[in-house]
From TrEMBL:
SUPFAM superfamilies: MetI-like. The chain crosses the membrane at residues 7-32, 52-80, 92-115, 143-163, 198-220, 240-267. This is ABC transporter permease. InterPro entries: MetI-like, MetI-like_sf. Its main location: membrane. It is a multi-pass membrane protein. It holds the Pfam family BPD_transp_1. The lineage of its organism: Bacteria, Pseudomonadati, Pseudomonadota, Alphaproteobacteria, Rhodobacterales. It comes from Pseudodonghicola flavimaris. PANTHER family: ABC TRANSPORTER PERMEASE PROTEIN, INNER MEMBRANE ABC TRANSPORTER PERMEASE PROTEIN YDCU-RELATED-RELATED. Residues 57-263 form the ABC transmembrane type-1 domain. It is found in: Cell membrane. CDD domains: TM_PBP2 (cd06261). The keyword Cell membrane applies. Belongs to the binding-protein-dependent transport system permease family. CysTW subfamily.
Length: 278
């Protein structure tokens, strides 16, 4: 009896936090979606019939997918370099990967506005080098949003892959080379398959976080690249349409849960998020 009591004394505080700060707000949002401005599923009907909502969802998933692919490619190179070639500069390189976590996303997004503006550093450098005659339009389009989002999300791809690569013994590559495999073949057939769990974990983190990202797309997109999170904010702040905004939030939550459910068939989600939290 005492053991059971101690067990529930440990569990109940955490359970109460989950119910108060996670489950109750989600249930409240769902309740608003079916009661405002009138009871029923009218908000969901309007949402699925709206061309603007459909475009926003497609845009959100497209940007999230492109961001994920770009982060995996760049992140794999960075993680591979740190894990295998960094040597004495490994702590410095790892510190540079972690450095963005110490700077607000808002500040980083404003920094990209300064860099990518018509009179920003990027355009001024290209014009000064004679590579272009007129400024390139980086702002208020998908290109600028993608550049900034890749920068923000890149550490989330690097860290899981780096953790995975650090656990791979170099004896496998040495054995492959000793059996006559070329360096490329040893990498392709021996090393790369062992890094796939880290690749899947990093890709999942980046994709899920990108689906609900708000600050960077809102600032760099300038209202012309309206991902679903910004569309929800627009509906609530500009039109006071709480019902539709809540319905969009519920569908986005369900879409994210569906992504996690599908990913669970290929990735150990418990290991992925425990490694990320640690």
């Amino acid at each position: 009896m005492n053991e059971k009591l101690r067990y529930w004394m440990l569990v109940l505080p955490g359970l109460a936090v989950m119910v108060i700060f996670y489950i109750w707000p989600v249930l409240n949002i769902w309740g608003i979606s079916v009661t405002e401005p009138a009871a029923g599923l009218g908000n969901y009907t309007r949402m699925f019939d709206s061309r603007a909502v459909q475009v926003s969802f497609v845009l959100t998933f497209r940007i999230a997918a492109i961001t994920t692919v770009a982060c995996l490619i760049l992140g794999y190179v960075v993680a591979y370099t740190i894990a295998n070639f960094a040597g004495r500069v490994r702590p410095l390189m790892l510190g540079l990967v972690l450095l963005p976590f110490w700077v607000s996303v808002l500040i980083r997004s404003f920094a990209w506005i300064v860099l990518l503006g018509r009179s920003g550093l990027v355009n001024d450098t290209l014009i000064g080098a004679g590579l272009i005659a007129t400024p390139i339009r980086f702002m208020h389009n998908e290109l600028g949003v993608l550049i900034a989002m890749v920068h923000v999300m890149l550490p989330f791809a690097v860290l899981p892959m780096l953790t995975n690569m650090r656990g791979i013994s170099d004896s496998y590559m040495k054995a492959a080379r000793g059996l006559g495999a070329s360096e490329w073949r040893a990498f392709r057939e021996v090393y790369f398959p062992q890094t796939l769990p880290g690749v899947f974990s990093g890709g999942l983190l980046v994709f899920v976080l990108s689906l609900g990202f708000y600050v960077t797309p809102a600032l760099l997109g300038g209202g012309r690249v309206m991902m679903i999170s910004e569309y929800i904010t627009y509906q609530i702040q500009e039109f006071l349409n709480w019902g539709l905004g809540a319905a969009l939030s519920v569908v986005l939550l369900l879409a994210t849960a569906l992504v996690l459910l599908v990913a669970a068939r290929f990735v150990n989600l418990r290991k992925t998020f425990l490694e990320r939290s640690s």
